[in-house]
Amino acid sequence: MNIIDLLKPQPGLRVFVSAGAAGIGAAIAEAFVQAEAKVYICDVNSAAIDSVRSRLPGLHAGIADVSDRTQVDAVIDDARQKLGGLDVLINNAGIAGPTGAVEDLDPVQWESTVATNLHSQFYFLRKAVPVLKGTSECASIIAMSSVAGRLGYPFRTPYASTKWAIVGLVKSLAAELGPSNIRVNAILPGVVEGERMNRVIAARADALGISFDAMREEYLKKISLRRMVTVDDIAAMTLFLASPAGSNITGQAISVDGNVEYL
């Protein structure tokens, strides 16, 4: 096999993507479909699922609130049946959570952020790892953390806390699952261009009492390359980690962020 072939995921790879109907998740699902993988996504938004399936014929999908363990169990069972097993789990689901001073945060919003961003990672892992062990010879788990999983993030403590926790989870699982030939890595996206980031910028601008444009410029000043990354940048890294070229990469927290210097 030449080096170019090593960079391509194996055709027929069986891939599960949580929150795969929009944003980063949809870009990842589309990238794997283009790489001739068999892909199953779940999402809480049925209309978004219908939209992405209309673009990607053959995509398998199920509806799930990832903070609900029974719904997670159901879509993993469905994916195993429809895909005939599992090679790659992409734990992508997450929400931005509230913005504000820690003493002003609503405990319900804190708990919702932890449930969606962190508990869901465990729910998918506990159900999918036995499938990976039993059906794959090239198993890989990719967890979506954030640049906020390596830097402090004032006024975004619920989000940052969950993203740091994901890095710890990944590094621990890499050691735990390595003897079973399962690789585990985290991707840490930076400031990702799109509507979700626009909402984050608007909320933080409001919290700090400045304009949206001024807040956006502040974000760009913190990035060495002075530009945001795209969902396709993140999708490309997932393809690499799932390819033979990534076969000896595990336990890593890989930033795709243009080098965000601080938050």
UniProtKB/TrEMBL annotation:
InterPro entries: NAD(P)-bd_dom_sf (IPR036291), Sc_DH/Rdtase_CS (IPR020904), SDR_fam (IPR002347). Transmembrane segments: none annotated. SUPFAM superfamilies: NAD(P)-binding Rossmann-fold domains. Keywords: Oxidoreductase. The keyword Oxidoreductase applies. It comes from the Bacteria. Belongs to the short-chain dehydrogenases/reductases (SDR) family. This is SDR family oxidoreductase.
